[in-house]
């Protein structure tokens, strides 16, 4: 009998989840300073088949600078027609802990009147960080997913976006960014969404594994006192990121996109007792004019006699009753019973909010 009970308990443990709706700490936030950095640069794409910026002044000046670095000085007053070149903005993300010599992807976008970057090559371009320092250099052939074609009569055909291209591994890191994760006395962990309950649960989970390590600074930030040294600290950070907790339920929200008619209701939305009656009133007016001819030899005139038919129809009219604390599924079932469309649903939700029955924040996009 004892063996049977142990087997049954093992089966129950295998079937039931260990933690309901548990999420890893790494999915709820990130450590401060351990993030990517944005890089931007101004460059020139050459080798275009006549789809460049032509003779725009800033392209001409840039090409003069490039040719000057190569030892070729253009005569004064010469303005070359650069249909095979385009001025571009180059952007990239520098990952955390990226070291000199590593490769990163770059995106190249036109900033002038170039029609397409297909077939072009980016000339060596420095990429700057927010502090004005050079952190990477970019160069290479562009991969463009779009296509643009124009005919002599002015007709055009464009597929996707031909003015934006990408260079895989087109950037070379030249300078590393110091994150400071291994030297600071306190390492901070920031939640993606501010929530005191979630922060408390993360703190408790960390302190159960490492007593006295974590404390809450505010609804987003936790201060972690970890031993210095990159090896020891990295091991503890990895263990902390893999902890599983049950985050707090998100605040009740109703998201309404008035342009597309999209309505999203999260599971935290509740309703106070309320009754909804929804129907559609349709008024139809049909005009049937008739032409009236005068009697023969009466010297009368042809006239138009108006004839109108007015009809009124009303559809719907069902009443949906919400019990106290109605859940999301009950709300959806009731609204489906009424047969409302997207625009009518928005009107009903706004009316419930005004009546004080909708316990949620409405966000209009």
Q: N-to-C SSE series? A: HEEEHEEEEEEEEHEEHEEEEEEEEHHEE
Q: How many β-strands, per DSSP?
A: 23
Secondary structure tally, helices: 6
Strand order of the largest sheet: 3-4-5-10-7-6
Radius of gyration: 34 Å
Helix content: 10-25%
* Unreliable sequence segments: 1-20
Describe the structure in your own words.
The protein is built from six helices and 23 strands. With 365 residues, the protein is α+β, with helices and mostly antiparallel strands. Strands 3-4-5-10-7-6 form a six-stranded antiparallel beta barrel.
Which descriptors would you attach to this protein?
four-stranded antiparallel β-sheet; 365 residues; 36% strand; 23 strands; six-stranded antiparallel beta barrel; alpha+beta; disordered N terminus
Topology overview:
Blueprint (H helix, E strand, L loop, with lengths): L1 H14 L7 E2 L4 E3 L5 E10 L10 H13 L15 E10 L8 E8 L10 E8 L5 E8 L5 E4 L5 E4 L4 E10 L13 E5 L4 H14 L4 E3 L4 E4 L5 H12 L2 E2 L7 E5 L4 E4 L4 E2 L2 E14 L2 E3 L10 E3 L2 E15 L5 H11 L3 H13 L3 E2 L1 E4 L1
Parallel strand pairs: 15-23
Antiparallel strand pairs: 1-14, 2-11, 3-4, 3-6, 4-5, 5-10, 6-7, 7-10, 8-9, 11-13, 12-13, 15-16, 17-22, 18-21, 19-20
Short description:
The chain is α+β, with helices and mostly antiparallel strands and 365 residues long. Helix content is 21%, strand content 36%.
């Amino acid at each position: 009998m004892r063996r049977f009970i142990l087997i049954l308990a093992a089966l129950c443990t295998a079937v039931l989840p260990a933690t309901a709706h548990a999420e890893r700490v790494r999915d709820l936030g990130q450590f401060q300073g351990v993030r990517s950095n944005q890089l931007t640069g101004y460059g020139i794409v050459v080798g275009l088949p006549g789809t460049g910026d032509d003779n725009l002044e800033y392209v001409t000046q840039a090409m003069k600078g490039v040719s000057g670095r190569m030892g070729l000085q253009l005569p004064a007053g010469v303005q070359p027609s650069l249909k095979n070149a385009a001025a571009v903005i180059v952007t990239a993300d520098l990952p955390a802990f990226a070291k000199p010599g590593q490769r990163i992807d770059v995106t190249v976008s036109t900033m002038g009147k170039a029609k397409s970057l297909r077939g072009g090559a980016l000339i060596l371009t420095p990429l700057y960080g927010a502090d004005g320092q050079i952190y990477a250099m970019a160069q290479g052939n562009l991969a463009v997913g779009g296509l643009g074609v124009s005919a002599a009569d002015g007709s055009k055909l464009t597929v996707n976006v031909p003015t934006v291209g990408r260079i895989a591994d087109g950037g070379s890191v030249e300078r590393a960014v110091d994150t400071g994760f291994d030297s600071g006395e306190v390492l901070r962990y920031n939640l993606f969404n501010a929530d005191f309950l979630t922060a408390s649960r993360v703190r408790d989970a960390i302190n159960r594994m490492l007593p006295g390590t974590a404390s809450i600074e505010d609804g987003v930030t936790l201060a972690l006192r970890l031993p210095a040294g990159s090896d020891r600290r990295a091991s503890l950070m990895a263990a902390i990121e893999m902890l599983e907790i049950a985050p707090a339920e998100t605040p009740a929200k109703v998201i309404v996109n008035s342009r597309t008619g999209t309505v999203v209701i999260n599971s935290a939305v509740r309703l106070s007792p309320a009754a909804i009656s929804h129907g559609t009133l349709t008024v139809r007016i049909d005009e049937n004019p008739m032409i009236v001819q005068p009697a023969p030899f009466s010297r009368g005139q042809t006239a138009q006699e108006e004839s109108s038919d007015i009809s009124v129809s009303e559809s719907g009219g069902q009443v949906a009753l919400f019990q106290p604390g109605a859940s999301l599924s009950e709300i959806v079932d009731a609204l489906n019973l009424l047969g409302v469309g997207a625009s009518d649903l928005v009107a009903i939700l706004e009316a419930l909010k005004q009546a004080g029955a909708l316990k949620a924040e409405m966000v209009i996009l």
